[in-house]
Amino acid sequence: MIKVGLLGSTGRVGSLLIDDIADEKDMTIACVHVFDELKKELPDGAVITNEIDILVDCSDIVIDFSSPMATASLFDSVIKHKSKTPLVVATTGFDEHQKNLLLEASKIAPVLYASNMSMGIAVLNSLVSTASKALSNFDCEIVEQHHKHKIDSPSGTALTLGETASTARGLDLDAVRISGRDGDIGARTKDEIAVMSLRGGDIVGRHTVGFYNDGEYIELNHTATSRQTFSKGAIKAAKWLVGKEPGLYTINDCLGI
């Protein structure tokens, strides 16, 4: 039985994970980290804590859908105590320091990081790489849509897709990305990649990567209609990660693509 710890247990996906893991025959919730009130029932014996170290110690694996600051504390705990506890991390919006902590933690424990735990997004990302390279003379534009409560913009998933598209063309996304157009800005430059954000209502998540040329265009689209997409994907990733050697893994590794 895999003992799972949850960071971000009171969030939208964290709450779903509590329900979905209860349906798994080979997994159980062993510990949840809470910042506020937990409204879900847990298995008998499960630990509720606000201490990251306790969360890590009680768990065979930690699944994290929280915030950059909370995730940084998780990384700090792994680094400080040299913990081998595997981590499945889906938090987005990291700054450079937090990205460095991710890399340092992955030298000690197996860490699977994905800006989106959807299996469909993983396949989309692979398709984007192929299309961006093959259609290198096409203009690339990315649009993401999310609910009105989402804090970071552009989404981590959209940035991952942008990085994939730019890398396939031998470009640095930071050098070519724009995330807004306003006023008399002139014609679109050849290499720029737009990553635009829309926010409204309860949209779970929609990402479109378009490649546009004179006379034709192709658009690759993924739409999440339920947050269980992310919950189920994280559970699949967690089962795969248990027993792996320290290192930084992706959803693509989990799927073998």
CATH architecture descriptor of the largest domain: 3-Layer(aba) Sandwich
What's the Cα radius of gyration? 19 Å
CATH level-four homologous superfamily name of the largest domain: NAD(P)-binding Rossmann-like Domain
List segments where confidence is low: pLDDT < 50 over at least 5 consecutive residues.
Answer: none
Give the count of helical stretches: 9
What is the top-level CATH class of the largest domain?
Answer: Alpha Beta
Order of helices and strands: EHEEHEHEHEHEHHEEEEHEH
Number of domains: 2
Shape designation = elongated
User: Main sheet?
Assistant: 7 strands, parallel
Record the strand order, biggest sheet: 3-2-1-4-5-6-12
Overall number of strands: 12
Cα distance spanning the termini: 28 Å
The structure class reads: alpha/beta
Roughly how much helix do the residues carry, as a percent range? 25-40%
- Whole-number average pLDDT? 94
CATH topology of the largest domain: Rossmann fold
